[in-house]
Structures are given as structure tokens and as C-alpha cells.
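User: Please fill in residues for this 277-position structure.
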């Protein structure tokens, strides 16, 4: 089965292209201290608000800091937030989805009512509400995004488990006396890995977008730590005289989220070819 998926991957141009772009972004994030031409927080008021030139290819901000260097370092923040936040949400969602779908009954009802309550609130406004009571920093942003993004994956995993648990090999495993924990994680979970991978990829894009929005509003990553969102915050104050402060971080957010969404669509076609076309 793994060979089939690998073969489909290398025949899916969308997945290959987006994967290459994401790998480049990850490389930039890991080696940002080498790639960056300047220190991201190095100030020089004499060079403030300079337009793109050979020396500063994306211009400088209101404190004379190199925008290109700050965007490179900002990629580390965005990808870290996306990965950790989705890791938290996936862990919660997978556990609750497995338990809800496998046991059913009152346990399923309680978990699903909790999911319904969470889904009643728009996710971003729920994040805003929680962040408002906490100190705005990268750690709280990752945790809050993760703790508010699990309902969707829970419902998805539950639906998959409901269909799988009635199959003959699962019933045979129960009769054989295999523990529920082993059945859930050894016999059921591998069969829902496709939807998990697809939703993880899509979730990273959503988490990056949420972090950028929070940082733009001043509730996310705080200066002087560079993030694409707080670079945009500076840009809005100088939009008429320094367009580059808004355009370049905006392009990076758009490009990164687009790549993760395209990868998610490509992986969906790979794991379930019936959805393509």
C-alpha cells in the first residue's frame, strides 16, 4: 500500500510542486541565521523606510531594519507555530475521535456535544477571546490555536472509525481478547492515516494564517521578534509611503498558506483518487 501511495505521489504534479516549495521554506527557516544578510533587529535610523534596492532587496522599515532579513526569520516563527499548533490539535482530535467512534453510546454523545459547543463559536474569535486573557507570546499562541482547532478532526476521525469498527477483522480482534487500546491504535488508526495526513497539512496553513492575524492585531508574537504578522502591523502605518512593508510579508503569508493547501489537495487525491477530477 505504501508503494502505491508513493507512486501516486510522484505522478501528482500538484503534490510535488507544493512539497518542493514547502521544503524550500523549511530550509530557509532552519538556516535563517545563515541566509539572512543582516541581523533582523539591527536598527539604523539613517536608513529608515528605504525602498527596495540592491543593498536592501525588500527595503527597510521605520527603524531601519532590513525587511528581507526579518521576513526570513519570520518564516521560522510561522512554520513553528503551524507545526506545534497542529500537533496539539491533532493529538486531541485523534484521541477523542477514536474513543468516540469506537465506544459510541454515552461517551460518543458527550464528546460530540462538546464538539458541537466548540463549533458554535467561530474559531478565530474563540482564539481572540482566550488570548485576551493571556500574555501574548509565541508559546501561548501555539497552545491556544492548538486547543481550539481540534473539533473538525475529531468529527472526521469519529466518522471513519464508525465505519471501520464494524468490519470483520475488528470483530475478530475483539473476540480474540485483544485490548480496546490495541485495537484502536494498531488496527483502526492506520486505516484513517490518509485523512489525518491531509487535515494536518491543511491545518498548518490555517494555523499560520491565524498566527499572522493575531500578530497583526498585536495579540500574537510580540516585537522585536520578527513575524510576518507584526511586520504587516508596521506596514499599515506607512502604507502610503512604504508599500513594501505590507506587500512582501503579505506575499509570503499568501504563498505559504497556498502551498500547504495545495499539498493538502494533492494528498487528498493520492489517498482517495475518487475525489480527484
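Assistant: Residues filled in for all 277 positions:
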Amino acid at each position: 500500500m505504501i508503494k502505491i501511495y508513493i507512486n501516486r505521489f510522484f505522478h501528482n504534479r500538484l503534490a510535488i510542486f507544493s512539497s518542493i516549495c514547502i521544503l524550500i521554506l523549511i530550509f530557509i527557516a532552519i538556516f535563517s541565521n545563515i541566509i539572512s544578510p543582516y541581523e533582523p533587529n539591527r536598527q539604523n535610523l539613517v536608513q529608515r523606510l528605504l525602498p527596495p534596492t540592491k543593498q536592501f532587496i525588500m527595503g527597510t522599515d521605520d527603524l531601519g531594519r532590513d525587511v528581507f532579513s526579518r521576513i526570513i526569520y519570520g518564516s521560522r516563527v510561522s512554520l513553528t507555530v503551524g507545526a506545534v499548533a497542529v500537533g496539539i490539535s491533532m493529538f486531541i482530535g485523534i484521541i477523542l475521535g477514536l474513543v468516540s467512534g469506537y465506544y459510541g453510546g454515552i461517551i460518543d454523545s458527550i464528546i460530540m456535544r462538546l464538539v458541537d459547543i466548540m463549533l458554535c463559536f467561530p474559531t478565530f474569535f474563540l482564539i481572540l477571546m482566550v488570548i485576551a486573557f493571556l500574555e501574548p507570546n509565541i508559546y501561548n499562541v501555539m497552545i491556544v490555536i492548538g486547543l481550539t482547532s481540534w473539533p473538525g478532526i475529531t468529527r472526521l476521525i469519529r466518522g471513519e472509525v464508525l465505519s471501520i469498527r464494524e468490519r470483520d477483522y475488528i470483530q475478530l480482534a475483539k473476540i480474540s481478547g485483544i485490548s480496546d487500546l490495541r485495537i484502536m491504535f494498531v488496527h483502526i488508526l492506520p486505516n484513517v492515516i490518509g485523512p489525518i495526513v491531509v487535515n494536518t497539512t491543511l491545518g498548518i496553513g490555517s494555523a499560520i494564517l491565524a498566527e499572522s492575524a493575531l500578530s497583526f492585531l498585536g495579540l500574537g508574537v510580540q516585537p522585536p521578534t520578527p513575524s510576518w504578522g507584526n511586520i504587516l502591523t508596521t506596514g499599515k502605518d506607512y502604507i502610503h509611503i512604504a508599500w513594501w512593508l505590507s506587500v512582501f510579508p503579505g506575499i509570503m503569508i499568501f504563498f505559504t498558506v497556498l502551498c500547504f493547501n495545495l499539498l493538502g489537495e494533492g494528498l487528498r487525491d493520492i489517498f482517495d483518487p475518487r475525489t480527484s477530477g
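For context: The mean pLDDT is 88.
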